[in-house]
Each structure stands twice: as C-alpha cells, then as structure tokens.
Amino acid sequence: MVKFSLDGKTVSAPEGELLVYAAARHGVFIPTLCHDEKLDPYGGCRMCVVDVEGSPRPLPACATRVTAGLAVSTNSSVPQYRKTLTEMLLSEHLNANPGGRPNELLDMAEELGAAAPLILPDAKREPYEDRNRLMGYDPDACILCNRCVRYTQEVMQCSALSLEGRGPTARIVPTHGHSWLDTECELCGGCLSTCPTGAIYEKFHEGAPPQHERSLDQVKSTCTFCGVGCQIDLHVDPATKRIVKVTSDPGYVSNEGNLCVKGRFAFNFVHHPDRLTQPLVRGEDGELHPTSWDDALRVAAEGLRGVKERHGPQAIGVLASARLTMEENFLLQKLARTALETHSIHSCEAT
Ligand code: SF4
Ligand code: SF4
Ligand code: SF4
Ligand code: FES
Q1: Distance 186 CA to ligand 3 centre (A)
Q2: Which ligand ends up closest to the CA of 190?
Q3: Average model confidence (pLDDT) for the chain?
Q4: Is the CB of residue 296 less than 8 Å from the CB of residue 165?
Q5: Coil/strand/helix, residue 161
Q6: Which ligand has its closest atom nearest to the C-alpha of 231?
Q7: Largest CA distance in the chain
Q8: CATH hierarchy code of domain 2-76
Q9: Residue ranges of the chain assigned to CATH 3.10.20.740
Q10: pLDDT in tens, 253-278
C-alpha cells in the first residue's frame, strides 16, 4: 500500500492500482467512456482526465497507476474539460440516441448540462448494413472508443472487428468482408455488451423493439443451454410479458458478464407455442393427457417403484445432463443412489 493525495486528502491504495478504481474506493467517482474493467487500460476518450501535480497536462485516470506521493485533483479545472469533450462528441453525431438504447454519452451530457453547440457538416457517416440477423452497427452513434474492437481481441481472442478510416470517415467494420459473418466472429454479442452508446445493437427482438429499453423489467436467471450456468438478466416488456433481450452483468461470478451466442440470442424458445407448460401422463388410451405435478410425480414414482420391485434396482439407470445445473445433477444422483438404490447414473456428455 502507498499513500497519495486525492483532492487534498491523504489516502492509500495498492501501488500500481488504476487511479479510477482507487478513487472510487475512496468515494470519488470519475466518469469514463472508453474504459471497461474487462479490458486493458486504453486512455482513448479523455473523459476521465484528472490533474496530477507535476504533469504538464491532465492524465486519464483509467490508464494512470497509483504511485507513492501522487497528488491528484479531480475537481479543479477537470469538470470543464469533461463538458467541452462531451459537447465535441455530441457535435460529431447526427444520431446520438438511436432507438432509445441506453447511452452513456447522453447520460454524461445530462449530468454535465452539455449540449451540442452545432452539428458538424461532415457528421453524417456512411451507413452500414450488416447481413447478420443478430446485431447491427449504427456509425452515427459510434464515438470510436474502440471498446468493441478491444473486446473481440482481448476477450474473444479474435480479430473480427477493426477501426477503418480517419476523422469523419472513421467507423468500425468487420475485419474481413462486409459482415460479421465473413469473419471469425462467433456472434457472442460481447462487442455489443461493451458498447457504451448503443452503436452496436441487437437486431433480433422478440416483437417490436421497445422505444425505451430502460423501461423494461429485468429478471435475473440462469442460461439453460449448458452446464456452465451463465448468469443472465432477462429484459421483459411489461406490457406483453415477453422477453425482449438478454444481458449479463460483469459482476456475475460464473461468467463475468460474457455470454455465447446461445445465451445472448437464443431466447425466443421461451415463448414458443409448442413448449410443454404442464405435465402430461399417458392414459389407458395410450395418449398423453395434461395433469397436475402431484399426479405426474405419483405416476412416475409408482412406475419406478414397480420396476425396482419386479426386477431389482440395477434394472434402473439414470441419465443426467450437463445442461442441468450442478445442484440439479447433485440431487439427481442423490435420488438414484438413495431412493432408487442404483449406482447406474451417468451423464450423456461423458461419453
Ligand atoms: S460478437 Fe463476439 S466474436 Fe463477434 S465481433 Fe463481437 S465480440 Fe467478437
Ligand atoms: S461501436 Fe460502440 S464500442 Fe465500438 S467504437 Fe463505436 S461506440 Fe465504441
Ligand atoms: S451462455 Fe453459452 S456458455 Fe453460458 S450457459 Fe449459456 S450456453 Fe453455456
Ligand atoms: S475512460 Fe479514460 S480515457 Fe476514456
């Protein structure tokens, strides 16, 4: 631990910790735009600049590390830089708020009372239409923070996206070809999740896209597609009670906010009319009939007990699945070994 000065107060932090985190632990919030805690320090947007004694210019708190004796000021001339920077970013964007998606730049503008003084004549960027059906990119909302490119390189370890062009022609493009589908992209949606402005967005909506994503209800759940058990947030339209999109929080332990294509986009099965919504039991007529859970469990228990009595417990085998949660698999082997008295339990994924 080393001591340093933060807005006139002496505080301590582990040597080498990024200033933005050290300040947050001492109650000083420094806003960021291009920073993502999953990615390496970048220092591209300058939204987080702070004054550091002895430095000829303000330094980005997201890329500056704590050293002993550092004297940092976050509240002198810095707020004015932030407002000017926000106004400059807004003046480069024709469509800063497409589709009502959450947008950290607009949140910052509201907090700072910043508005675009004018829209630059060359603010309109070349439109972009990707033929993949899951994600889109709107260059008019892109602030070129490079978070999407860094995510795909640093987290997904691939080079699916690149920054192309300079100045007003700069935009994010697939590295090869004309679509994410021409690259090694796995459509995990990670670039979408890190984008601070909604420039990369879900094309895939269950029903009409909502005008204001923040009005959606959120329900925490577990992805059902595999045994990794990624934690997800289901965004539910309160009017239709249908899932509109899926996100994941970086604080979730099992997956740290990362998902694969199934967890992020394959949620419309939930509302499919063919899904079973109640238990079915085969009747004397050989057909399946809806029944209550109590009745279905009674019939299953009687069937298993009958096999055990007639043929012995080794006549029963239980197949578990990596698609169940760890807890459900644990309970299944308990049921097999203690109630059914068989050790014949196996997972279909183990073969
Ligand atoms: S969807 Fe995933 S793999 Fe594809 S570009 Fe984005 S981060 Fe990379
Ligand atoms: S698409 Fe989003 S994450 Fe990528 S550079 Fe633009 S604003 Fe940043
Ligand atoms: S998001 Fe992908 S990796 Fe995570 S639990 Fe679902 S299917 Fe498995
Ligand atoms: S958030 Fe620090 S420079 Fe962008």
Answers
A1: 13
A2: 1
A3: 89
A4: no
A5: strand
A6: 3
A7: 88
A8: 3.10.20.740
A9: 2-76
A10: 989 999 999 999 999 888 899 988 89
